[in-house]
Amino acid sequence: RPVLPLVLGLSLGCSLSLLRASWSHGGGEEQCPGAAGRPGAPAGGPHLDAAEGRPGPGHEDFRPRIVPYYRDPDKPYKKVLRTRYIQTELGFHERLFVAVLTSRATLNTLAVAVNKTVAHHFPRLLYFSGLRSAKVPHGMVLVAHGDERPIWLMYQTIHYIHQHFGSDYDWFYIMQDDTYAQAEQVKALVTHLSINQDVYLGRAEEFIGGDEQARYCHGGFGYVLSRSLLLRLQPHLDSCRNEILSVRPDEWLGRCIIDFLGIACVSQLQGQHYHTYELAKNVEPEKEEDEEFHTALAVYPVSDVTLMYRLHKHFSRIQLERAYQEIQDLQMQIRNLTSLTPAGEAGLTWPVGINAPFLPKSRFEVISWDYFTEQHLFSCPDGSPKCELSGASKADVSEIIEWALEELNGRYQPLLRFSKRQLLNGYRRFDPTRGMEYTLDLLLEAVTQKGHSHVLTKRVSLVRPLSKVEIIPMPYVTEATRVQLVLPLTVQDLDFVANFLDMFAMNTLDTHDNALLTLLFVYRPYDAQQVGQVDVFAGVKAMVGELEKRYAEVKIPWISVKTEVPSQVKLMDIVSKKHPVDTLFFLASVWTEINMEFLNRCRMNTISNWQVFFPVHFQEFNPALVYRGEQTASSGTDFLRDGHFDRHSFAEACFYNSDYMTARTKLAADILDQDEVLESMEVFDVFLHYSGLHLFRAVEPGLVQKYALRSCNPRLSEELYHRCLLSNLEGLASRSHLAMALFEQEQANST
To answer: Where does the UniProt annotation place the signal sequence (predicted)?
Structure first.
């Protein structure tokens, strides 16, 4: 009896399903609705084009069609070239392109003000002028048409936009340099408009003495054109230039669009309003209370540069206040909803809306705090226990203290007003899940409304959260660039050369990778004198000869150098002079295991005149300490057990010869033939101090080195020698392995 309702429900459900299936397949001769004109096609359905498979007029359908793949067996197979980005293959366009109409008279004044206020908010912005100025301001892209006539300038601008950007952007915003536009509001406007409609949106104005129904968009307040409208307008531009007479360029463009496309300007479309505001003379933006002014997307006319900056400051303050209000509203909603969660009020994190602090799973994952005062930092980059607080760290501490006082005064005023006496203790740490955290012990003086003062100590906690992640635009690079490997060799490296050459042959020569190798033999003075009788590198040269016999098309040149101190910069100077300026160098070490995966990343991460790449290789631990007689783990084991990323080594580097020569020229002018300075420098230091390039240093799991005890040359600088020793010591084993080795040794000694 208890399961009787379940049985009845299942029976009823199965019966209804079978009955519905019989109704669906009752008409066995019914054809698919796509076969238009065939017998059995359903009456009243949408008429589809049988040849194209598309809906008929009035029945627009955006559903995807599956196109079956067919390859003619009689035709030879041709490799399909895929685009680099899926966005290009799918035909996506960028959102917004902005054109600013300027003149030679206002290029260095109003146009510069536009560039400094709103240009960085738009993804792409160009300036169009009739005549080119003698000098274009820095950071501005100017297109000069060679004629100052307004109608000609508008005609050439529309033609240029269509020719160069018509297939790349969905929306085009045209404004004048005496217009202030709220960039974020304009971007928000176009994101809410449909791209499959012809759009001519702006401040609609009536033609003088014309039809009341026909309106054009006033050029002073800017206007938005859709890509579809621009494509339809392009064939008629020449006719508009020859047939339409007008004094104002915005009226000419509006008449052209109306006469040939039948589209008039509108101020409201698809529920979106294009709000504008016309400024009066001698206006004070800070005192303007009109609601239309605060909601305006475009303000016109802006008579001078100072007014442009004042408008930008005023609207930026309004946007900032709105953002703070939205944050407060969201925090209140989070507080209200937290009580309904399983964790209750205890699940509420501080600050509200920011990720909770990182919870370490072991003592090795604990994020340490750095102690600081207003004058010193007690966790220094060079490892020293105490260093002077300067630069960005000093500015960071000063800003945090000022912000803490501002928050305290904002919370307790007008009852109390705080002023700083001294920073007693300061702690900070970087939490990758939320940002930089601070804890400050402040000695404050509190003053009441009656003037009584009291000194007290207050501890405050602050968080500087991680802001919005932005994609940095980078130049386009390919994976077809030839890589020139440079391998310096000393007498101490002879035992590892055979393994390096074997890996190079297997991973580059056998796979026909576009990579070449140059060997750099570094002779000591004594060995160089005896090279006629005993050549210490004779074995290496024999290995190179065998490789050249095995691979007939491969030549591996070598360069011999005599020096007591094998400075990396001096060696690179010799190699640089023997190669073209467009050569991509990979400076390797004898313990490096070359593979195609890393070489491709070397090509992709190194950009001429833009970026150099210094990978952090993975160093395997000493197997005698890690495994202690056990079987060596395979290559697929956990990296955390087998080794570590050696952050003290800068031996590997990828860079272009032209970039190195430019930085080296600046270094030579600075040191003035003081060659002893080069002995204390590496290639990394040359790029760091004498180039404006991006230095990309990242861990590289594809660059693995077997354990080997490096020989540290005491003739090098103290810093380089110290880094070499640290690399050897940290490369022995992990702390747990070292502790286990010490424990076993103590047990053996006690017995």
So the answer is: 1-21
